[in-house]
Every structure is written in structure tokens, then in C-alpha cells.
Amino acid sequence: MNHCLPCDLEGVEPARIVHRDDVWSCEIADGYDVPGWFVLRLRRHAEGWSGPTVEELAEFGPVSQRLSAAIQSAMGATGIYFMSFGENHPHFHFLVVARDADLPAVSRGAAILARRAHGRDLDASLAVGERVRSALAAASI
Ligand SMILES: [Zn+2]
Fold it and tell me: Which letter, b or e, does each residue of 52-63 get, where b requires 16 or more Cβ atoms within 10 Å of its Cβ?
């Protein structure tokens, strides 16, 4: 079995888990712990857009919408990026990144990934994660 970072997130400590249901999970991943950055992933290992089932993908939309709303509510973020490359980690997942209103234009879009080099802060990430978890819980019916 090959090492798979998204699969390994299944075993993270509860403080890193922002959302988890039977199919989808969203966590703060080691190495990507910039405040406002999350990994939304299919819980089972499936690769690329052909990997997930139609049923799994049908749940992706509502989960993503709720997660985006919760992040915006918790952080006051003006934008939420969903990035998926599938190069280093083919497991179906997205890097979900909150974008602040005051982020310089030159750092917007894919350029925001450069923040990983100097913006990691696990404690601040976990604090944001707690606020997002609370916002999700408050929005649940
Ligand atoms: Zn995997």
C-alpha cells in the first residue's frame, strides 16, 4: 500500500477535524497548517474525478457549500478557494483556503500558496478550526 497523505488524515487528533461525516472529511493537515487552510477529502481512497461515485459527488456540493459558509462566517473571509491538483496526492481532495479582504492582489489566486512557506501556525489554525466547527454546528438543522 502506498503512503497517502489524505488517507493518513483519517487518524488525526479530533482538534484538527473541522467536519466529518460518513463520506467526507475536512481537517487541518500537518504541513498545511496556515490559519484558514483546510483539506476537504473523500474519506475512502479514490483517485481523480473518475474515482468517486456519483452518490459521493452528489454530497460534495452541499458539504462544500456549508463548509464555505462556515469559514466565511468564522473568519470574515471574502473568498474561499478550492484547489485540486491531484499531482503529489492523487487521492480526491481539495485544499480549501480562506482569502482575506486585505490580501494584496499579487498574492491572490494560486499565488496564495506561497503563504505556506512562512504562514504556518498550528495554534492559530486550530483556533480557526474551532470557530469553523462551531459555525458548522450552529448552521446544522
Ligand atoms: Zn488515499
Answer: beeebeebbeeb
Which residues lie near ion ligand 1 (Cβ < 5 Å)? Answer: 4, 6-7, 45, 91
> For residue 79, is it within any domain?
yes
For the chain, what is the largest distance between any 2 Cα atoms, rounded to a whole number of angstroms?
A: 43
Core vs surface per residue 81-118: b (16+ CB within 10 A) or e: beeeeeeebbbbbbbbbbbeeebeeeeeeeebbebeee
How many domains are contained in the chain? 1
Ligand 1: centre distance to CA 73 (Å): 30
140: in domain: no
From ligand 1's centre to the CA of 56, what distance in Å? Answer: 15
Closest CA to 47 of 4, 2, 3, 90: 90
pLDDT tens digits along 82-134: 999 999 999 999 999 999 989 999 999 999 999 999 999 999 999 999 999 99
22 occurs within a structural domain: yes
Asked whether the whole model's pTM tops 0.90, one would answer: yes
